Hints:
The chain is an alpha+beta fold and 280 residues long. It has five helices and 17 strands.
Amino acid sequence: xxxxxxxxxxxxxxxxxxxxxxxxxxxxxxxxxxxxxxxxxxxxxxxxxxxxxxxxxxxxxxxxxxxxxxxxxxxxxxxxxxxxxxxxxxxxxxxxxxxxxxxxxxxxxxxxxxxxxxxxxxxxxxxxxxxxxxxxxxxxxxxxxxxxxxxxxxxxxxxxxxxxxxxxxxxxxxxxxxxxxxxxxxxxxxxxxxxxxxxxxxxxxxxxxxxxxxxxxxxxxxxxxxxxxxxxxxxxxxxxxxxxxxxxxxxxxxxxxxxxxxxxxxxxxxxxxxxxxxxx
Length: 280
């Protein structure tokens, strides 16, 4: 396979390899994505993004999202801001529409960076999804060492734990087990949040298929929904992640707006050694 051009981008340190397949089709296996995402022998990224022609006449492009483990996922807020930046720069438009497997997302430039409408939050147990009927405000995990989390779907499943100190160093220890807990049949993104001031949360995230990440936009969206449902904050809050701040609004129509930075780092070519499939 010939070298493929790519961009390296990030949203608050949540980093992406971005391919543009609108003119020339690109189809990569899970093994190829894993090689490219490897931080020691590949380019390195949390998610691998492919921009494809839109399927809907209402969209400017389709965004395919693959995690570092090669699997396709439904949503990524930080990647949505990055693709919003690319498409607004390319088209000169202030607002664009990005199609994903989870639906249409709307993004645009603002004075604080880029704002994207991540769609309506879903909070019913079947929508998360959970393995059985239960209260999504306090999902029973049958663990004495952790409080019951709040479950939310923002295009993908999230469990938000409200703890006294999100900085405590337990995320790497409990993240893998919680991601694969039997109550989450599609696995889950795991967030640990603590209230740090009026309308302000500190959030750390174990991302499904990735691990600890410097920022997860959809987890921040889930956290604002969870904090409002728990009565901890209002609908407009600041969330500080390892990579920096995001500004969230959970509107009355249930849509979640997220505002933050999007950065292009460099452009390059993927080596054929990363793309060629090994001979059996």
